[in-house]
Amino acid sequence: MKTIQEPITGNESVSSRETPYEVLVEFYNAFNNGRLPLMEDNWSNSSDQIVMDNPLGGIMRGWTEIRSVYRRIFEGKAKVYVEYYDYTIHQTGPIFYTVGRERGHFRTDDQKIELAIRTSRIYQKIENEWKQVHHHGSIEDPGLLNRYQELVKK
């Protein structure tokens, strides 16, 4: 297992979405650029088999609930940027999962906080395309978590 330190920002040049790396680039492109249609394409749109557990939304099940978290981030007053690094990719048949860290920032007009998030994502081949079916993100520092959650509410 090789731990990759070179970050994925979403700005990398990829020609398809056939490999786990390319699908991760697509995710970070959608996230860092607030592209909800691309985010929707990255996730499975199943209403009962996908789950996201993160510091902003808690546990969200189904695309409708998950979309509401991304919409709040993308349409909010703040700008959030993260890049994925210190990660590994594990693939077995029609599933791959990745475990790593995100670093970045959350910025409003008058505040900026640096983010440090532990992250895992699971993708499944559905109709011959990689689709995200699970995400878990956690912020270890309770003070940082509280500031982040409070700023997003504004």
Task: Write up what this structure looks like.
The protein has helices at residues 20-32, 36-42, 62-75, 142-153; strands at residues 51-54, 58-61, 79-92, 95-107, 112-126, 129-138. It has a six-stranded mixed β-sheet with strand order 2-1-6-5-4-3, with helices on both faces. It is globular and about 45 Å long. It has 154 residues and is an alpha+beta fold. The model has no long low-confidence stretch (mean pLDDT 91). Helix 1 (20-32) packs antiparallel against helix 2 (36-42).
Q: Tally of extended strands? A: 6
Main sheet attributes: strand count, strand direction, barrel closure? 6 strands, mixed
Average pLDDT number = 91
Query: How far from one another are the termini?
Result: 41 Å
Contiguous runs where pLDDT drops below 50 for at least 5 residues: none
Q: Could you state the order of secondary-structure elements as H and E?
A: HHEEHEEEEH
| Estimated share of beta-strand residues | 35-45%
Please tell me how large the radius of gyration is.
15 Å
Helix coverage percent: 25-40%
**Tally of DSSP helical segments:** 4
Strand order of the largest sheet: 2-1-6-5-4-3
**Helical/strand content category:** alpha+beta
Task: Estimate the global geometry from the Cα principal axes.
Answer: globular
Secondary-structure map:
Elements: H1 20-32, H2 36-42, E1 51-54, E2 58-61, H3 62-75, E3 79-92, E4 95-107, E5 112-126, E6 129-138, H4 142-153
Parallel strand pairs: 1-6
Antiparallel strand pairs: 1-2, 3-4, 4-5, 5-6
Helix pairs in contact: 1-2
